[in-house]
Amino acid sequence: MFPLSHTQTFGVTIDRQIIALLLTVELAPELPQNLLVQNLPPLLHVLFLNMDRTSEVLYTSCKTLLANLIHKLVSRDTSAYPIQDAARTTIAMLTADDDTSLWSKEDLNLDVKILQPLESSLLLGTLVKQHVHIHTIPSFPTQVIFLLSPICHKLVEHWSSVAHVWAVSCTSSDHASRSLQTLRALGLSLNGQVLVDFFERLVHCVLEEEKKPQAFVGEVFLTFRCFIEDLSPNGLASFPQLAWCFVILLACNSEDEWRHAAQLLDLCATRISFEQIRPAVIDMAKKWPQFPGVHSL
C-alpha cells in the first residue's frame, strides 16, 4: 500500500486497495504497540487519503481503524497524559453509526482556474490538527496530532516525509493531490530537496500532452503559494530558484498554468526586493544539477 522511496510508485487497483485496507483494519489492533507506533505515520496517511472514498467499505474501514488506533495507543494509557476524555470523544465520533464519510468527495477538476483550496482540503487540514465542525457532527473537540504526538516521536516530521513521497511518486493524481493537501496541513517547510522534487513533478505534468492532471497541477501551485506566504522575506530571498521557475513556466501553453505562474511570480515580487535577492543569486551555483527540468521546458 505504501511507496517506499522516490523511485517507487503507487499503482494499485481499487480491488487490491480495498483488500489491503480491510486486512490492515483487522490486523493493526492486534499488533504490538511498538510496531504500531513505528508504522503510525504511513497508517495515518493512508487513512486520511481514503476518508472521502465513495465506497462505504473504504471510508468506514478508515474510520474504524483510526478509532482502534486511538483506543489502543491513547485511551488505555491512563498514566502518560490526561487526554483520555478527548480520546473517548474522538472514538465516539468516528464510530457513530451514521454511514457517512467525514467530508464529501469533490470533483478535483471542477475549477482549476481559481487558485483556492477546495472545501474538503480545508476540512482535511482541520481534522489533522485543529478543532473540527463538519456537517452533522456537532464538534470534534480534539486533534489527531494532539492525541498521538506524545506517543510517536516526531510524528509531524515523519508523516510529512510520507506525504512528500506520495505527492511526488504516486501515479494516482487523486492520492497525490490529497497528499499535497496533507502536507500543507502539517506545515511542511521548504528546503532544496522539496523544491527540486515538486518542480520536477510539476514539469512532467506541464509537458504531458494528453490527460494532464490539472487538479494536481493546481495543488502544486497552491503548495508553492503556501511556501511563499509562510516564508519571511529574507527566507524567500534564499530560494531565488522559486521565482525563476515561475518565470520559465510563463512559456507554457496552458492558460491556467500561465495564470498560476504569473500570480505566484507577482506574489514573490511583492514579498522581496531585488536588493534582498541579489546576494542569494550571486552565491547560487550557476547550474542546478539536481533539477534538469528547466531545460525540458
Automatic annotation (TrEMBL):
Recorded GO CC terms: cell cortex; site of polarized growth
Domain of life: Eukaryota
InterPro entries, A to Z: Furry/Tao3/Mor2, MOR2-PAG1_mid
A GO biological process held by the record: cell morphogenesis
Domain Cell morphogenesis central region: 10-206
PANTHER family noted in UniProt: FURRY-RELATED, PROTEIN FURRY
Name of protein: Cell morphogenesis central region domain-containing protein
